[in-house]
Design brief:
With 619 residues, the chain is an alpha/beta fold. The chain is built from 26 helices and 18 strands.
């Protein structure tokens, strides 16, 4: 008998525990049902008790007050039916049954709320215990988009989201996927207490951090404070990686670990607009919009249109400039924006070489203006790429629809992209169906995935120095990382476009290799101009050459003659045809064997080796 009783107890406890758990993370539709049941119980109780007390009391305010009291008592488990049972209408069996059912409904709503709260707390505790083992994803800035991102991560059950404000409604969804939502000052400040709570300590366990709050300044603050906490806890840099959206990506170097400074082991830091532009280029590269001949030479010019010149439009221009350079092709971009001069002062001050070195046309008008449509009708047949970046997604969509109708009438094959706050949408057109891509995907935000080719390039550049690709990438400065990323993004897309049928084992002729090297030099020049560099004047070069001689005679490590990183000047920002002259002039001073054309050829061969292609006769 005792065994039977024990079995009953165990079964009851197990069922009760299951009830707690199920109520703790009930789906959103069940939450809505609970709300409907609560309303139904309240309305039914008010009608029934109101009818009874209206019959008993001649004083209306007294009847109303007693009705409200009895309805509230229903939800507290107190029975007031006896107070109105003498009323003839209430004494009817059907009405009595309705009253009891209303009481049961009220009690169920109350029990659901209580049990649901207990169940949610129990689930949080269980999840926290499970999260204290194995690698962990920590996401700062809980929102619908970041929860969508968390659900796409390979180990979504080991995800902790930090509520930076107003994300409590997402907790049910986060718990349901096996994650955890943390709030409070300890969590939002990235304190040592947060790390202690998550059980993070020195060892093999890895922490992957994503700072994705809408406010980039808050992302930087959290990343810095968390870094201090990690150092206090003695967490090795190799245990950490961070992807962070910043107000200015150039400050990311302070987050990266180095030989002399504690930091994160891996850092992917971008401004939101820069990340969006990279998403645009990665999935819709300019190389896919023009034709190439059998010798990898472009057969047509690359013509781009950018609507809007706020931060997103500016990032789009830099991205298209860096990735729209091809041997045999002329780059031209038309930027349409009302009062663009008022928005672009900082941009052109920061990147002075863009207007001086490239063919850019600015139109001070709206995207729906007669001036723009007349220009498109006159020259639109050459347009290959349209990026709509007004800052308003509704306006972007309206302009895209109007452009699509115009392009269809004119028989144009231009790509139309809508660039919103965190996603890029491609319209259905002659080039294919509609497509929407978000920056909140592991492929874009996980640094190892996005930077795999860039890391391989950097490793090849520094192979003689020893160390793994990861170690060398960690030691990279901000500019070098950006350079490798730009080369990888451009080179990969170009090679996919020019290789016949995408065949990775194609042997390219020497003429094709030379044209690819010319394209690489054009890309290199565009990248440097888009990073603020300008061509080095001859007088400056001569001054630096004289300084080089002096330093060498004094036994000091001489400066690099052709590159001034302080003033952002570079002697190689010139035509391909002049590179041999630059090499000879430098070698005459240094006694070296610089060959700047060959560097471009070598970079192409390196990209070919990474894609599996090979030059004729081998690399």
């Amino acid at each position: 008998m005792s065994w039977t009783l024990a079995a009953v107890y165990l079964a009851a406890m197990a069922l009760f525990l299951l009830l707690l758990l199920s109520l703790g993370f009930q789906p959103r539709f069940l939450t809505r049902i609970a709300g409907v049941l609560l309303l139904a119980a309240g309305v039914s109780g008010t009608l029934l008790y109101g009818c009874g007390y209206w019959s008993l009391y001649e004083n209306v305010p007294q009847a109303v007050a007693r009705t409200l009291f009895s309805v509230f008592c229903m939800f507290l488990g107190r029975n007031e039916i006896s107070a109105i049972s003498a009323v003839p209408v209430i004494a009817k069996p059907a009405v009595q049954i309705a009253l009891y059912l209303t009481h049961l409904l009220a009690l169920y709503c109350t029990a659901s709320a209580v049990v649901g709260t207990i169940g949610a707390r129990l689930i949080r505790t269980l999840h926290l215990l499970l999260l204290r083992r194995g690698d962990l994803y920590l996401i700062f800035g809980a929102s619908t988009e970041t929860v969508d991102f968390a659900e796409k991560l390979p180990r979504k059950k080991r995800v902790v989201l930090i509520d930076s404000g107003g994300a409590g409604a997402l907790e049910s969804r986060i718990l349901h996927m096996g994650g955890l939502l943390l709030s409070g000052e300890d969590a939002k400040s990235g304190s040592p207490e947060l790390l202690k709570r998550l059980g993070l300590r020195p060892g093999r366990r890895k922490l992957n951090v994503f700072c994705l709050d809408e406010n980039p300044a808050e992302n930087l603050r959290f990343a810095q404070r968390l870094l201090e906490a990690l150092e206090m806890r003695g967490i090795a840099p190799e245990q950490t990686a961070i992807s962070v959206i910043l107000p200015d990506a150039s400050v990311s170097e302070a987050l990266q670990a180095s030989k002399t400074r504690y930091g994160y082991g891996s850092v992917l830091a971008c401004e939101r607009e820069e990340l969006l532009a990279r998403l645009m280029i990665r999935f819709f590269p300019p190389a896919d919009t023009i034709r190439f001949d059998g010798a990898c030479r472009a057969e047509e010019n690359f013509e781009a249109l950018i609507v809007g010149f706020g931060r997103t439009g500016q990032a789009a221009l830099r991205a298209l400039l860096m990735n729209g350079q091809f041997c045999g092709s002329r780059f031209h971009a038309t930027i349409v924006a009302r009062d663009y001069e008022r928005q672009a002062g900082s941009f052109f001050s920061r990147y002075p070489g863009l207007r001086a070195q490239y063919d850019l046309t600015f139109i001070d008008a709206d995207a729906k203006s007669v001036a723009l449509y007349e220009k498109l009708q006159q020259t639109g047949s050459t347009l290959r790429y349209a990026a709509i970046c007004t800052g308003d997604e509704k306006e972007n969509a309206e302009i895209a629809v109007e452009f699509a109708a115009l392009f269809e009438r004119l028989g144009m094959r231009a790509l139309i992209l809508q660039c919103g706050a965190s996603r890029v949408r491609k319209n259905a057109d002659l080039l294919g169906g509609a497509q929407t891509l978000s920056v909140f995907t592991p492929e874009i935000l996980c640094g190892d995935s996005l930077d795999a080719t860039a890391m391989a390039l950097n490793h090849a550049y520094h192979k003689k120095e020893g160390g793994s690709a990861r170690e060398q990438w960690t030691a990279c400065d901000y500019f070098s990382r950006m350079s490798c990323r730009a080369s990888a993004d451009y080179g990969g897309a170009l090679l996919r476009s020019v290789l016949p049928d995408g065949a990775p084992d194609t042997e390219l002729s020497q003429a094709a290799l030379e044209n690819l090297a010319r394209s690489e030099h054009l890309r290199w020049c565009a990248f440097h101009c888009a990073m603020g560099y300008r061509p080095m004047p001859e007088a400056v070069w001569q001054e630096r050459a004289n300084e080089y001689r002096k330093q060498k005679q004094a036994g000091q490590t001489p400066l690099r003659i052709g590159k001034d990183t302080a003033l952002k000047l570079h002697v190689c920002l010139t035509d391909w045809e002049k590179l041999d002259e630059v090499s000879k002039k430098e070698n005459a001073v240094t006694g070296g064997d610089a060959d700047y054309r060959q560097l471009d050829r070598d970079n192409v061969k390196l990209l070919l080796s990474l894609t599996g292609a090979a030059p004729e006769g081998g690399a």
